[in-house]
């Protein structure tokens, strides 16, 4: 059994970034931009009015001043002539500041009479300097998962498409004679396949495309048939059949198809029977079948691998500090990822592990806000001790 950190390093060694492609901005939400985007021009590209009002020289902007209005500047159409002291230009938000002006008095503070205005009050300059948002040549550096605000920034930079790693495709294979899909009528000894729905949602939220393949039965033939359907996927995830029972045939089935193992079994709880390696062109993760074990392994290994395949760095899960909501006993030789309730606290949130840590209990996982990390052989800790957690 290898430690969790070593297992993650071996998985990531198999997760080389996928080839890059050009992605139009309209389709780039959530994609990982590689390289750097460079602003083709400054924003705003000229000093611009921030308000609707009257532009003038700052020396004219004093209460009581009377100014003749000599023209109009609006967004998209500047006032082309230079403006002398003593006169003003009607101006609207976003319009370029006319030459000779550097102050805008908002229209609420102005009294209009024919083509003359009288300033009742004078506030801020209400001018956005050229480049106030960003200068020409400004960069947005990758690798970076693009959020909605990034898309708006790239658009303003006049960057119409980005380079992004191809989205990884993940094939999920649930295995076991006992499984039926949700909505089917299970036989008396059957249960409903569950964990793959969490795993699929997690993978898609991480930018992957997914294939849910038919459930493989506990025979080498059935496993082989379904593995065939996984051909072409970047990542193959099997669920169940990873342990030591007579019907745990996944290792045998993948070996027959050329599997090169990176490890099998890790010092972790839940998730001990995890298997990983290369299945021809694909990264393969053999997750344990217990619902919580599979999902915890998904957080710890599948999601970092998907990030790495998309070219992200620092892909490991990021623990946060919390205080223990109750005492915990000494830990054994395997790192324990305890399902815990997480509530806000000052200065640290409070993590309270559930009494039962049975890896079959999806109800508790659904209630859990975090996985409380107990390293191998960690000593007993009292309530209030500082611990590390992975928020879920
Ligand atoms: N003698 C030993 N027995 C077991 C060991 C061991 O070291 N020695 N390890 C235990 C641990 S830890 C785990 S975890 C499980 C993992 O076993 P498998 O990966 O072989 O999983 P299965 O036996 O196929 O299933 C376990 C459990 O989970 C249910 N299951 C399976 N797939 C799904 C699914 N897609 N959705 C919902 N539930 C699923 C299955 O019905 C079983 O109840 O082995 C222990 N045994
Ligand atoms: O490791 Mo198993 O995943 O403890 O339930």
From TrEMBL:
Q: Which GO terms describe its cellular component?
A: cytosol
BP term (GO), one: Mo-molybdopterin cofactor biosynthetic process
Q: Which InterPro entries match?
A: MoaB/Mog-like_dom_sf, MoaB/Mog_dom, MoeA-like, MoeA_C_domain_IV, MoeA_C_domain_IV_sf, MoeA_linker/N, MoeA_linker/N_sf
| Known role | Catalyzes the insertion of molybdate into adenylated molybdopterin with the concomitant release of AMP.
The family annotation for this protein states: Belongs to the MoeA family.
List the protein's name.
Molybdopterin molybdenumtransferase
**Hey, which pathway is this one from?**
Cofactor biosynthesis; molybdopterin biosynthesis
Q: Which GO terms describe its molecular function?
A: metal ion binding; molybdopterin molybdotransferase activity
EC number(s) on file: 2.10.1.1
Reaction catalysis annotation: adenylyl-molybdopterin + molybdate = Mo-molybdopterin + AMP + H(+)
Cofactor section: Mg(2+)
The MoaB/Mog domain, residue ranges:
171-308
């Amino acid at each position: 059994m290898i430690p969790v950190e070593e297992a993650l390093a071996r998985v990531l060694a198999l997760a080389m970034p996928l080839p890059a492609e050009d992605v139009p901005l309209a389709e780039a939400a959530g994609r990982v931009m590689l390289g750097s985007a460079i602003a083709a021009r400054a924003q705003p590209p000229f000093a611009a009015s921030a308000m609707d009002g009257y532009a003038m020289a700052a020396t004219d902007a004093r209460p009581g001043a009377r100014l003749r209005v000599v023209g109009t500047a609006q967004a998209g159409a500047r006032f082309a002539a230079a403006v002398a002291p003593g006169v003003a230009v009607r101006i609207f938000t976003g319009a370029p500041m006319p030459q000779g002006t550097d102050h805008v008095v908002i229209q609420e503070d102005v009294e209009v009479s024919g083509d003359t205005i009288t300033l009742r009050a004078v506030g801020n300059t209400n001018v956005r300097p050229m480049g106030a948002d960003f200068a020409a040549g400004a960069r947005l550096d990758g690798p970076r998962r693009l959020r909605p605000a990034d898309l708006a920034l790239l658009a303003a930079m006049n960057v119409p498409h980005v380079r992004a790693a191809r989205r990884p495709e993940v094939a999920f294979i649930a295995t076991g004679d006992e499984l039926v899909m949700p909505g089917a009528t299970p036989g008396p000894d059957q249960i409903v396949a569950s964990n793959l729905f969490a795993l699929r949602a997690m993978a898609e939220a991480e930018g992957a495309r997914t294939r849910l393949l038919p459930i493989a039965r506990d025979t080498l033939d059935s496993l082989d048939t379904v593995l065939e359907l996984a051909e072409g996927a970047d990542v193959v995830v099997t669920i169940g059949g990873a342990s030591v029972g007579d019907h745990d045939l996944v290792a045998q089935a993948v070996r027959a198809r050329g599997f090169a193992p990176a490890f099998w079994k890790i010092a972790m709880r839940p998730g001990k029977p995890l298997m990983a390696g290369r299945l021809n062109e694909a990264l393969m993760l053999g997750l344990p079948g217990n619902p919580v074990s599979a999902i915890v392994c998904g957080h710890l290994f599948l999601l970092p691998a998907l990030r790495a395949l998309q070219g992200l760095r620092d892909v490991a899960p990021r623990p946060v500090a919390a205080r223990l909501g109750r005492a915990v006993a000494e830990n054994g030789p395997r790192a324990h990822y305890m399902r815990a309730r997480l509530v806000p606290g000052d200065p640290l949130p409070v993590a309270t592990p559930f009494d039962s840590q049975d890896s079959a209990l999806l109800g508790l996982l659904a209630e859990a806000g975090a996985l409380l990390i107990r390293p191998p052989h960690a000593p007993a800790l009292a309530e209030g001790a500082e611990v590390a957690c992975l928020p879920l």
